[in-house]
């Protein structure tokens, strides 16, 4: 069939399932562009394969399984990415596994394997890109495939697309509020004068913070994002070179800031001299980032022809799944 593409979905949790549901909901529109067939779905415990492609009904039934539930199906196989590739030869590999900022695994090996098998890659997993951005891009170029990663930073706002479109001038600096959980917590602390532990409990209660929030509070999530943004604008920095200061703010710090008409924000930055960091910073109320509250994200980009400020949603479940689908459509056009 003309323009037929086979998709493997690796990682079938919150984003994997939302993406698959979206794919079925939009199938009428997508059919005008291409015949997309999901031929493989994998979680940490198992995988299911169907070379002819799962029907929309079968995909919805998969989404109704409990987490780690693929292995409960009689046709499931042990997770084996080599076997998956030899059995169903996907054209597009959608990587939705959890981020591990020490090793990049399992996403890193999965992505390298996909590229070496000449499959396009779409990933919401930041870790492989934060650790190996230029190597992965070089490998993709060599194998004539694309990597779509617009969901990795500020997924609810087309930031990466905007940065990729900057070609005739240079980006000198980036300052951003790139983590929704910590920004929500700081906003609660400023507005309600509650301690950080209580702000974290509120973030967990509304479902924006993980039970183990260390990736947010220790700055890993923001650091990975500033590395990806810097590499997008051709300023290569490494995750291990980003200085990370964990978020630790006392109520007395907040009170002092309020008295002086300042606010504390958890800022991720790339400076003109190449120094990159994530740290709590006192900002004047006049700073465009100072008024970015709650779960909103923002970036202030200093360029050789002026400053750009973008404020918008970060990546929630729905936004991320839409970005993944946009990238899938993008890599096949
Ligand atoms: N949630 C968001 O709003 C959001 C926004 C932007 C980016 N992201 C990124 O998107 C990715 C997915 O996020 P999520 O919220 O969907 O996470 P999640 O709900 O924890 O789902 C992760 C999935 O990956 C599976 N998995 C774990 N190890 C695996 C392995 N070795 N091989 C295959 N599958 C494996 C898990 O399997 P089990 O079900 O068996 O545990 C689960 O299905 C993460 O990298 C996250 O940082 C998420």
Automatic annotation (TrEMBL):
UniProt xrefs under Pfam families = Homoserine_dh, NAD_binding_3
UniProt key word NADP: yes
Question: Where does this protein hold NADP(+)?
Answer: 11-16
- Which GO terms fall under molecular function for this chain's record? homoserine dehydrogenase activity; NADP binding
Question: Which source organism?
Answer: Candidatus Methanodesulfokora washburnensis
The Aspartate/homoserine dehydrogenase NAD-binding domain covers 11-148
Question: Can you supply a Gene Ontology BP term from the record?
Answer: threonine biosynthetic process
Keyword terms, alphabetized: Amino-acid biosynthesis, Methionine biosynthesis, NADP, Oxidoreductase, Threonine biosynthesis
Q: Which SUPFAM superfamilies match?
A: Glyceraldehyde-3-phosphate dehydrogenase-like, C-terminal domain, NAD(P)-binding Rossmann-fold domains
All copies of domain Homoserine dehydrogenase catalytic, residue ranges: 159-329
Claim: Amino-acid biosynthesis is one of the keywords in the record: yes
Instruction: Identify the catalytic residues.
Output: 225
Q: In which pathway does it act?
A: Amino-acid biosynthesis; L-threonine biosynthesis; L-threonine from L-aspartate: step 3/5; Amino-acid biosynthesis; L-methionine biosynthesis via de novo pathway; L-homoserine from L-aspartate: step 3/3
Family from the record: Belongs to the homoserine dehydrogenase family.
Give the protein's recorded name: Homoserine dehydrogenase
Sites binding L-homoserine sit at 210
Where NADPH is bound, by residue?
A: 126
Give the Enzyme Commission number.
Answer: 1.1.1.3
């Amino acid at each position: 069939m003309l323009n037929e593409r086979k998709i493997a979905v690796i990682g079938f949790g919150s984003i994997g399932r939302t993406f698959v549901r979206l794919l079925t909901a939009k199938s009428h529109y997508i059919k005008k562009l291409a015949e997309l067939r999901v031929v493989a779905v994998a979680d940490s415990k198992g995988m299911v394969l169907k070379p002819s492609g799962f029907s929309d009904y079968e995909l919805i039934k998969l989404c109704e399984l409990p987490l780690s539930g693929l292995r409960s199906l009689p046709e499931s196989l042990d997770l084996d990415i080599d076997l998956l590739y030899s059995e169903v030869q996907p054209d597009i590999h959608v990587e939705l596994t959890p981020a591990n900022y020490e090793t990049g695994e399992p996403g890193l090996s999965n992505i390298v394997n996909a590229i070496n098998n000449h499959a396009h890659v779409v990933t919401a997993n930041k870790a492989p890109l934060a650790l190996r951005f230029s190597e992965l891009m070089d490998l993709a170029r060599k194998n004539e495939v694309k990597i779509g990663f617009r969901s990795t930073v500020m997924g609810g706002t087309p930031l990466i697309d905007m940065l990729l479109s900057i070609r005739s001038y240079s980006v000198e600096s980036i300052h951003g509020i790139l983590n929704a959980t910590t920004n929500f917590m700081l906003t609660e602390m400023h507005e309600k004068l509650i301690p950080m532990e209580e702000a974290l409990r509120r973030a967990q209660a509304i479902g924006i913070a993980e039970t183990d929030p260390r990736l947010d509070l220790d700055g890993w999530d923001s650091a990975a994002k500033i590395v990806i943004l810097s590499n997008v604008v051709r300023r290569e920095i490494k995750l291990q070179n980003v200085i990370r200061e964990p978020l630790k703010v006392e109520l007395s710090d907040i009170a002092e800031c309020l008295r002086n008409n300042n606010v504390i924000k958890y800022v991720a930055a790339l400076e003109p001299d190449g120094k990159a960091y994530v740290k709590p910073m006192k900002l004047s109320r006049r700073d465009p980032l100072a008024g970015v509250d709650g779960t909103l994200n923002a970036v202030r980009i200093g360029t050789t022809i002026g400053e750009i400020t973008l404020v918008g949603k970060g990546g929630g479940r729905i936004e991320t799944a839409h970005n993944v689908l946009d990238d899938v459509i993008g890599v096949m056009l």
